[in-house]
Amino acid sequence: MRGFVTFLGQLMHHPSALVGLIITATLAIVALAAPLIAPHDPIRQNLGMALRPPSPAHPLGTDEFGRDIASRILYGAAISLEVGALVVLLSGTIGVLLGLLAGFYERWVDQVISRSIEVLLAFPGLLLTIAAVTVLGPSLLNALLAVAFANIPRYARITRGAVLAQKRRDYVDAARAIGARDQRLMFVHILPNVAAPVVVVASLGVASAILTTSSLSFLGLGAQPPDPEWGAMLATGRTYMRRAWWLTLFPGLAIMVTVLAINLFGDGLRDILDPKGQRGSNI
Known about the structure:
By secondary structure, this protein is mainly alpha-helical. The protein has 13 helices and no strands. The longest helix has 37 residues.
């Protein structure tokens, strides 16, 4: 409890992280409350109201099918944040487990895992996700799985390096001396002490996952019509950019604000959880 209070105090003295957290929390609340606050059904068509500019009835205008842009953006927030969280959960869980095994056992286990990770890192991340979605087929679920798969090496490498440093500490030797098994050493003693860098990467990974998934949807490989996903909305809007600027402006702003807010919070979290790095930056 004392550690949490200390963390909140440090967060209050980090303006950019606090702003990022407030915006992110607001977006999460809006996403959860979308069915209650959205003025219209996000997928209901009304061709008589197609491509109408912003007005009191439709604050952000309508799309080519007469669907309310504001409602679609509100529902799209839920999709984007859910995708970001699930990508981090999947890739982080698998990557941390692989990093723990590689760093703790070393030798052939480390060789197999490290070489496999290096093979994945040899491919550009976006190219790897595009290839995976092409094989699996275009859909939001497949895009989520592809992005998660491409992000596994990041967590594995960070965890492996931290485990290699921690496994030689005195507290690990003491635990082993009193009979602690490998599983207990890894998950009870070592994992909590390597969590800080993983948490920082995870916080920044949410923003990266949202951006990558939106890019795949923009290319037609992610969310499919009529899902109100921001990247897919941008892809539709580019066709009507000269006639209906609001189709691209508002989804683009939604992506920008969300990614910026999460990155601000992630950068602040890195400063708070990495005091050595923070002191070094102030010299």
